Amino acid sequence: MNYIKIVLIAASALALGGCFEGRKNTEQLCTDNPALRCEKLNMNDGQCRIPRTDLIWHRFEVMKNPSEANKIVEYKFLMEYRKCLELASQIQTIDQTELRQKRFNALVHSGNEQERIVMELRSSQQPQTLYFLWSQLGDEHARRAFLQMEGSPELDTAEMQYALATYYTNRDKQKTIELLNRSLELSTGDNVNVEAVKSLASIYYHVQNKEAAYIWTQVASEYDVPLVPKRQLQLLYGFNDAKYDQLDDMAAEVESALKSGRFRRSLVPY
């Protein structure tokens, strides 16, 4: 038996051991915490194991810290779990009746839980919650309340400036650019919103600011955003070699500033 084969077998054993250990830990968590209502889920079912486990452990987090942010995350875990159950319900099983009933009950439970969370969040005035209710559920009251907070300190965060930018994208391009830049100014090096970078490249090109568009396109490429080949990109923008060198230097400076959490809009003087 060669070395590579030994390593692969050892790795497989560790993976299987980790899966078994993870399942035991989840079962123990359910046993120790009846409030998690694990019996309402399709326990001991090979289908939907990962989203089910994620949901159970996050519910444990909500028990310890029932913040609105944690409840929103729970809603999203429930949504993923429901999607999986809907697919699993179409799978034929040997013992169809009992297992199908268990999956159906879990599906109904997850839907009810999503409704419960929404009801608990409806009266919130926190911007993150208002944005969630509006953007994910189409709540017009939440939209109006969120937009009324524009200009307030509560919305002056990287996340909320980007959220506000999504509202103006098809309404006011210049304002969208300002909000996206502000979002990146408020970012730290370890939480750069790549969607904001991509949006700036797209919007600047749309408003015919090709220099800024090219800079942000190059920055996006450093965050593994796929681009057309460099030669094709240069034909698209039509600058001379000296201009490309200048813009590439600016893009490198912007990238460095983003990664160190010191980006300022003035770094892109276009």
Written account of the structure:
- The protein is mostly helical.
- Helices cover 70% and strands 0% of the residues.
- The protein contains twelve helices and no strands.
- Helix 1 crosses helix 2, helix 3 (68-88) runs antiparallel to helix 4 and helix 10 packs across helix 12.
- The longest helix is centred in the first third of the chain and has 30 residues, at 3-32.
The profile of the biggest β sheet is:
none
Q: Total number of helical segments? A: 12
Query: Which structural category do the helix and sheet elements fall into?
Result: mainly alpha
The rough form would be described as elongated
Distance between the termini: 63 Å
